[in-house]
Design brief:
The chain has 238 residues and is an alpha+beta fold. Helix content is 37%, strand content 37%.
Length: 238
């Protein structure tokens, strides 16, 4: 009777010792986490130019009428250069009273009407010509110039594809350094992508240029557009 009890107790200890090894079989696999990046550089094939027309008068209605007439003249010139209405977008329009201040006294200088439009050019060779044409027609300022690419979506997807491939290559290198290999990719997270570049400041002395019809168009250098992608890659270690 005593021997049977001893066997039962021993068996109970043995079964209990197997439980941790069963749990260990369900442990989370080892992983490697890396960052993959890619950059694509291409020449731009599209440009955006910001133009403004400003008009002043002591009477607000007269300021608006002057601005409307001047803006119509600029738009007519742009259309004569082959631009349709889809390529011209009104960005802002405002009318405000301006003041002079002297020893605490405020005196009205009249009203300023301002109409700002953005022009899209699908031929970047036209940029200098359009700036010159608009300012000679009455545009009073060129506030910015931005270059871009027509197929931005396609280039961003290609950059993303290359970033994932770079991440996988880095994961393989890290695993090799640890004397291991990678298995399947467990997760891919996009961490960032490049957006359209900011506008480039442009100054055009419109009054002087309008007075001198022989002034050449401003030289414009487009350079290159950078499309970037960055991903976080998690891979299983084998």
């Amino acid at each position: 009777m005593k021997r049977s009890a001893f066997v039962a107790v021993a068996a109970g200890v043995l079964v209990g010792a197997l439980v941790p090894s069963s749990q260990a079989a369900n442990h989370e696999p080892a992983k490697v986490v890396v960052t993959g990046t890619a950059e694509i550089r291409v020449p731009p094939d599209r440009a955006f130019v910001m133009l403004a027309v400003e008009s002043r008068d002591s009477n607000p209605r007269e300021a608006q009428q002057k601005n409307a007439k001047a803006s119509d003249g600029v738009l007519a010139k742009l259309r004569s250069a082959g631009l349709d209405d889809k390529a011209i977008r009104t960005v802002s329009y405002g009318l405000q009273e301006e003041f002079d201040y002297n020893k605490g006294t405020r005196r009205s200088r009249g009203y300023l009407a301002r109409n700002q439009v953005e022009v899209r050019l699908d031929d970047i060779e036209q940029v200098g010509e359009i700036i010159d044409l608009a300012t000679s027609a009455g545009a009073t300022s060129v506030s910015g110039l931005r270059f871009d690419v027509k197929d931005r979506d396609g280039l961003e997807r290609e950059a993303l594809k290359q970033a994932v491939a770079d991440g996988r290559a880095r994961a393989e290198a890290a695993a090799a350094g640890a004397g291991s290999n990678i298995g399947s990719l467990l997760a891919i997270e996009q961490e960032g992508a490049s957006g359209p570049p900011p506008p480039t400041p442009v100054f055009r002395a419109t009054v002087a240029m309008a007075a001198d019809s022989a002034a050449p168009p401003p030289p414009i250098q487009a350079g290159e557009i950078e499309i970037t992608a960055r991903v976080r890659v998690t891979a299983e270690l084998e």
